[in-house]
Amino acid sequence: MDVFACAGCGTELTAPVSRVALPVHTHHGRWEDLHPPLMEPATYAVDPRPSGPPWRSWKEAGADAAARQGVFAPVHSVSFGARNRIVIAPGDSRSMTLIPGKCEGYCRGVDGRAGPNLACEGCGRAGATRMDDCGMWQAVWFEPDAVVRRPSALPAGPPPDWDDLEHADRRVPPVEPDGSWSRRWEAAAGVALAHLVAVTEDRPVNLPAGPVAELLGHAVGRYLDPGPGARSLALAGPGIHPPRPRPDVPLVPRHPVTGEPWRPPGDEGAVVPLDSGVWAYLAHPGETSPMPATGVLPEGVLRDDYPLSPPPWCPLTPHHGAFEDTLARLPAVRGPRLRSYRDAYRRAVPPASAG
Questions:
Q1: Whole-angstrom Cα distance, residue 168 to residue 286?
Q2: Which pairing describes strands 77-79 and 249-253: parallel, antiparallel, or unpaired?
Q3: Tell me, what DSSP letter sits at residue 17?
Q4: What is the tens place of the pLDDT at every residue in 214-239?
Q5: So what's the pLDDT on residue 311?
Q6: What's the maximum distance between 2 C-alpha atoms anywhere in the chain?
Q7: Is 67 helix (H, G, I), strand (E, B) or coil?
């Protein structure tokens, strides 16, 4: 495991943490909602893309400079902040204090609009930003030049791998305890659909019967019109027998540590990556009762000894901001077909309602 220490005085600023993949919902929350921590305890992730202030409008930045920042289509603003910022759960931070006068927020917390708002208790150096306002996942972000990574005395457990996605604790249910759709599912669906639109160049898609069609069918229909010449989509990944023939579009998990998409051995064709927890639920839904039991139920029989959450009153709707932000960051969006698609999408969904 690692600890992060102040680059100025060496004070340790985190508990021991292990690296995992950056969650796909990192920058996509639901406004007017208070969210839980982004990261699991004792983990950290690195964001390779520029994030945070300073921001420049698309017109001010220009298409070439925006492309160097990883944005390939017009957006409201482009970040020229640091790359490789490090994120941890707030509970894993140590020896830092809030900086008075830099704790602005929208309504119910701080949003980091003025840059780092946490300072090292050892030397007073500002180098981290606490974010917990409504619409944001609670997190502490370190500027990459403000900290140094050191090995911890605590040994790390075995890192999660592809085979771990079959375990029940890796699955993310689509419905929250209050009966609403999971915010993580909404964001993950938006990100995956952007990749799906890019891979298919906005052509129709046929979904396989079962959980994929039941949970994602409405979402796919919102972004891809039905019609002739539909592409085939199917789940693919660890623990699943390779579908034959190969689907036009395999829906695959991201690695829980590297974030890279799973690929069939020897297959370099296009894939659509999906949040590993969401993929695990679709591929291995299993039985998720919180009550312990002995023995084994017959195949296909589910337990009924605890109340189930009521189903949401509306179909799953992908996070519009996650979809548009991801699509704008895919180089394929510069092609004429996808550019026309995105222009039509933006006319149908004005920016004010795309959060």
A1: 7
A2: unpaired
A3: B
A4: 999 999 988 988 778 889 999 999 98
A5: 65
A6: 65
A7: helix
CB 236 within 8 A of CB 242: yes
On whether the CB atoms of residues 81 and 54 are closer than 8 A, the answer is yes
Q: In this structure, what token pair is assigned to residue 345?
A: 């999408």
Closest by alpha carbon to 150, among 4, 349, 342, 333?
4
Helix, strand or coil for residue 49? coil
Beta sheet of 85-88, edge-to-edge order = 18-19, 43-47, 85-88, 139-142, 126-131, 118-120, 96-98
Q: Which residues contact 342 (CB under 8 A, 6 or more apart)?
A: 73, 324, 327, 328, 333
What length is written for the chain? 355
At residue 55, φ and ψ (nearest 5 deg) are -115, 145
Residue with tokens 């690695």: 255
Q: What is the mean pLDDT of each run of 10 residues along the chain (355 residues)?
A: 96 96 92 88 95 91 95 94 96 96 84 90 95 92 96 81 85 89 94 95 89 90 84 90 83 94 84 95 70 57 53 85 95 93 81 46
Element of type H or E holding 98: strand 96-98
pLDDT value of position 302: 56
Say how many Å lie between the first and final Cα of the chain, rounded. Answer: 36
β-pair partners for 79? 55
Amino acid (1-letter code) at residue 201 = E
